[in-house]
Amino acid sequence: MSTNKVIHALYNDDDILMDAVKKVKGAHHHIEEVYTPFPVHGLDQAMGLAPTRLAITAFLYGITGTAVAVWLTWYTMIADWPQDIGGKPNFSWATNMPAFVPILFELTVFFAAHLMVITFYMRSRIWPFKEAENPDPRTTDDHFLMEIPVHDNEEELKALLETTGAVEINVVDKH
Amino acid sequence: MYQFSGKLKMLAIILMALGLLGTGISFMSAPKTLEEAKEILAKQNDAHHGGHGEAASHGEAKEAHATAAHGESHDDAHAEHAFHQMQNRPWSAVFVAMLFFLGVSLLVMAFYAAQRVAQSGWSVVLFRVMEAITNNLHFVSIFMLVFIIATAMHMNHLFPWMGEGVFDPKSPNYDPIVDAKAWWMNLPGWTIRGIVYLAIWNGLRFIIRRKSIEQDNGDLKLHKNLYNLSVAFVVTFMVTESMMSWDWIMGIDPHWFSTLFGWYVLATFLVSALTITALVTIYLRSKGALPLVNDSHIHDLAKFMFGFSVFWTYLWFAQFMLIWYADMPEETTYFVQRFNEYKLPFLGMVVLNFIFPVLLLLNSDFKSIPWFVVLGGIAILIGHYVDLFVMIMPGTVGGQWGFGIGELSGILFFAGLFIYATFSAFARVNPVAKGNPFLHESETFHYYNIQHRGEDNSHH
């Protein structure tokens, strides 16, 4: 009945961490999480994480923004109240299109950027007053932490991690 | 070392021969007398069931002023006007193709110099490709020089301000607007400036290329020296390129001016230059001549193609929209003529130069797939040829434009010349700039996304 036990292996160098991740993956253990104080290039690849789809959402949001801008300029300038403003040709949307391009552009960027950021917050579960999920405060400064769930193989895992240059190995009960 | 294959050399020679033949035909078939031109016009009118109001729009063209002032009948004035345009057509066809390849080779040189100035790490394995392409600069420059001299000798009428009596107040051709610009627009000045631009570009290119080959010995002093020379090139290039675009392109419409024209011309040539670098790189890599170039380098080139396509669109639209919005008659005529007489190329190039590349090259994975980059690259090259076409043709041939033997032959000839110049230069030296201190960085260059896809990443 040790289902909630995890091992926290701490490292103080990102190169050593990368090698350790590769070794643990090589021994076919599941890595629950890695905490680092800064982005470590290639870590996601070593852990076998799937690429992000955030850029695809941004593209879709951008198209939405363009559509909103087209509708806004068409409805307000052409359909609702087509006034002659300084001789601008408000007969149809196309005849006055160049004047709308700055708005089309800005709303596209606005939608793409803001909705993508909000998507990022939601998917990463970040919001104000959120309780930090940090297992060890040192990982925000100069330490790297690898978390591996234990399934009745505590000794084996510990022995493996000791060969990877960990500076500290702790077995922790997770709630 | 790369071997310039006999097949490719044959292709280059065939292209040049076809181009010469077609250009000859287009010069022969241009009308020599006013009567011939009238016959052609009559045929055009029959084909269109009595014309389609073309004459009316011609009345607005600036060049028509001089002839219309004679008090002749409108038909005769129109015929004479059209006659000059028909005579200009073979010259313009050659000029557009020549300027396109000159600009592309020049901008490859400018990009290459900028890479040296920026001490860029990724592009060193592409240096020899870029240097080889710039070899074409020498070849086209010779033709440009001949063109400058021929134009200065009044062998063509591409530049209306070079016409007879334009600066003479007593002449019926007197043009006070152009006369006020005589301090810049005068034949000796134009000719000398043109020769000076060519001399600066070719001179610096020649020295930089020679030193770059010498640098294969690993001399770091040479590296510093090349850096300084590249700074000199970039600075003089920025000045001469702006002036070149006024002299050789904007001068065709001497009543019209635009402040950002130089950058706009720069953008169109720069995208084409990056595209042609990518295409030549992909070709040479497929022949096994560039063992150090990986998908990440292609990805970076495609990113540049994408980015500068957007940059071109930005400048194109900034120029168009400001003039459209204010709608001042002396500026708007430029776009009225293009919009009325050149609607398809004028709007079509926005699709080819903006919408197509943006949708095609937006995806990061697609940017490293060679055939995809080639597909986007061909669209970009066609689009920017059309761009130059729309810059030059309305002022020289006006409503008599078309894409026929003359235009195609111009492209074929200079494409053949390009192939010959580029690949013969590439075959002459080591395909790797092995003395460059950044070579290792370039060799091990890997873009993060591509690693995910599993490009060889033994260098991590």
UniProtKB/TrEMBL annotation, chain A:
<feature type="transmembrane region" description="Helical">
    <location>
        <begin position="54"/>
        <end position="77"/>
    </location>
</feature>
<feature type="transmembrane region" description="Helical">
    <location>
        <begin position="97"/>
        <end position="121"/>
    </location>
</feature>
<keyword id="KW-1133">Transmembrane helix</keyword>
<dbReference type="Pfam" id="PF11821">
    <property type="entry name" value="ActD"/>
</dbReference>
<keyword id="KW-0472">Membrane</keyword>
<dbReference type="InterPro" id="IPR021776">
    <property type="entry name" value="ActD"/>
</dbReference>
<keyword id="KW-0812">Transmembrane</keyword>
<protein>
    <submittedName>
        <fullName>Membrane protein</fullName>
    </submittedName>
</protein>
From TrEMBL, chain B:
<feature type="transmembrane region" description="Helical">
    <location>
        <begin position="91"/>
        <end position="114"/>
    </location>
</feature>
<keyword id="KW-0472">Membrane</keyword>
<feature type="transmembrane region" description="Helical">
    <location>
        <begin position="261"/>
        <end position="284"/>
    </location>
</feature>
<feature type="transmembrane region" description="Helical">
    <location>
        <begin position="12"/>
        <end position="30"/>
    </location>
</feature>
<keyword id="KW-1133">Transmembrane helix</keyword>
<protein>
    <submittedName>
        <fullName>Quinol:cytochrome C oxidoreductase</fullName>
    </submittedName>
</protein>
<keyword id="KW-0812">Transmembrane</keyword>
<feature type="transmembrane region" description="Helical">
    <location>
        <begin position="190"/>
        <end position="208"/>
    </location>
</feature>
<feature type="transmembrane region" description="Helical">
    <location>
        <begin position="135"/>
        <end position="155"/>
    </location>
</feature>
<feature type="transmembrane region" description="Helical">
    <location>
        <begin position="229"/>
        <end position="249"/>
    </location>
</feature>
<feature type="transmembrane region" description="Helical">
    <location>
        <begin position="344"/>
        <end position="362"/>
    </location>
</feature>
<feature type="transmembrane region" description="Helical">
    <location>
        <begin position="304"/>
        <end position="324"/>
    </location>
</feature>
<feature type="transmembrane region" description="Helical">
    <location>
        <begin position="405"/>
        <end position="427"/>
    </location>
</feature>
<feature type="transmembrane region" description="Helical">
    <location>
        <begin position="369"/>
        <end position="393"/>
    </location>
</feature>
<feature type="region of interest" description="Disordered">
    <location>
        <begin position="45"/>
        <end position="73"/>
    </location>
</feature>
